[in-house]
Amino acid sequence: MKRFLTSCFGLGWLPVAPGSWGSLPSAIIFGLACYFGGSTAILISLMIVLIIAGSFVCVKFSYVAVAATGNKDPNEVVADEIAGQALTFLAMPLLMTDVSGGQIVSIVALGYFLFRLFDTVKPWPSYRLEELPAGWGILADDLMAGVYAGIALFVSAKIWVLK
Predict the structure, then answer these.
(1) What's the predicted TM-score (pTM) here?
(2) CA 161 to CA 127: how far, in whole Å?
(3) CA 78 to CA 18: how far, in whole Å?
């Protein structure tokens, strides 16, 4: 059950790009909540819940996947992607008043792409954060990628998408 949770109900077991699959739930939830008119408070609350839930599952249960695979950051653990992708979208509701469906799609797609880019490239200090012990090392680099992607998304949305 612990591996099932850390894999986000099996998304981490998909054979190609499990991190990309693991990032989708947060992006989809954010996009749907925006599309159906979620308030700023609801959108931010949803992202906070996803950040906390993904972080908790990753830190608390990823040791099982580590032991089973022998890898200190197993590909199947994607709860960290849930948290990092949600962090990417955390500040966006502050900008998103009276947005069109096309703008929502653009923001979600750009946020998803930016998070995957920063999670893959791992700019400083992301790579070093992987050295933290146990589930913290699995989680911390994704949270840092979420911070970088969130800043890039916020700036991009402010100067481009929402103009």
Answers:
(1) 0.92
(2) 30
(3) 7
> What crossing angle do the helices spanning 79-89 and 18-35 adopt, rounded to 10°?
40
Q: Is the dihedral of CA 39, 40, 43, 49 positive or negative?
A: negative
For residues 90 and 124, the answer to whether their CB atoms sit within 8 Å is: no
Sequential DSSP letters for 3-53: HHHHTTTTGGGSSS-HHHHHHHHHHHHHHHHHHTT--HHHHHHHHHHHHHH
State whether residue 151 is helix, strand or coil: helix
pLDDT in tens, 21-34: 999 999 999 999 99
> Domain boundaries in the chain?
2-161
pLDDT in tens, 42-63: 999 999 999 999 999 999 999 8
